């Protein structure tokens, strides 16, 4: 039996894109972007480019960490200025 | 059972087009994008992933790797600008 792997990856990417756009809390958006990155790595591995899959997984990881650092810095500045909490 | 390995670039191309459409509409009209610019940058990840899938469907592997490598540098610059405007108290929100 031939298991079709790209359909699972396509469903994963569509779910990640819709969830990443429509969620409102930033932590939920980061989780949904992790789902989107997993779908991308799965599709690249289905094509057979395993080195590209390795490099792209590292790059999405770096991007998510950079956006998390920026989010925490903005919340610290707003808390220091007394706009929230 | 129809195998998907023959139509693999076609599925990747149309999935990339779908992601570009969803992501661009989400960047422009998404929830809370007018109040917080970080949310707009987080939504910007979705169409960039779609463009990378379109590169992959044409077997342009080097273009896809370069695009995915340049994206975090772009995020560093834009988030630095947002933090600087937030410190100055500019018209950001």
Which helices and strands appear, and what pairs or packs with what?
The complex is a heterodimer of chains A (85) and B (93).
Chain A: H1 5-22, H2 26-47, H3 50-80
Helix pairs in contact in A: 1-2, 2-3
Chain B: H1 8-29, H2 37-43, H3 45-57, H4 61-88
Helix pairs in contact in B: 1-3, 3-4
Oligomer: heterodimer
| Helix content class of chain A | over 70%
- What is the N-to-C order of secondary-structure elements of chain A (H for helix, E for strand)? HHH
Q: Residue ranges of chain B: pLDDT <50 for 5 or more in a row?
A: none
Strand content of chain A: under 5%
The biggest sheet of chain A amounts to: none
Q: Report the order of strands and helices of chain B.
A: HHHH
Number of helices of chain B: 4
Helix content of chain B: over 70%
Strand content of chain B: under 5%
Uncertain parts of chain A: none
Number of strands of chain B: 0
Number of strands of chain A: 0
| Form type of chain A | elongated
Class by helix and strand content of chain B? mainly alpha
Mean pLDDT of chain B: 89
Distance, first to last CA of chain B: 54 Å
Structural class of chain A: mainly alpha
Largest interface: pair, residues per side: A-B, 42 and 44 residues
What does this structure look like?
The complex is a heterodimer of chains A (85) and B (93). Chain A is mostly helical. Chain A is 84% helix and 0% strand. Chain A has three helices and no strands. In chain A, helix 1 runs antiparallel to helix 2. The mean pLDDT of chain A is 89. In chain B, 75% of the residues lie in helices and 0% in strands. The mean pLDDT of chain B is 89. At the A-B interface, helix 1, helix 2 and helix 3 of A face helix 1, helix 2, helix 3 and helix 4 of B.
């Amino acid at each position: 039996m031939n298991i079709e792997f790209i359909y699972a990856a396509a469903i994963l990417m569509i779910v990640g894109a819709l969830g990443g756009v429509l969620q409102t809390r930033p932590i939920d958006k980061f989780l949904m972007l992790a789902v989107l990155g997993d779908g991308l790595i799965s599709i690249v591995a289905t094509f057979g480019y395993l080195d590209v899959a390795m490099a792209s997984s590292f790059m999405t990881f770096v991007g998510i960490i950079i956006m998390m650092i920026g989010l925490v810095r903005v919340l610290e500045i707003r808390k220091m200025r007394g706009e929230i909490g | 059972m129809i195998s998907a390995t023959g139509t693999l670039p076609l599925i990747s191309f149309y999935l990339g087009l779908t992601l570009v459409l969803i992501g661009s509409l989400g960047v422009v009209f998404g929830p809370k994008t007018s109040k917080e610019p970080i949310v707009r940058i987080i939504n910007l990840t979705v169409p960039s992933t779609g463009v990378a899938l379109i590169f992959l469907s044409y077997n342009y592997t080097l273009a896809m790797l370069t695009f995915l490598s340049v994206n975090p540098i772009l995020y560093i610059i834009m988030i630095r600008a947002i933090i600087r405007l937030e410190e100055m108290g500019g018209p950001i929100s």
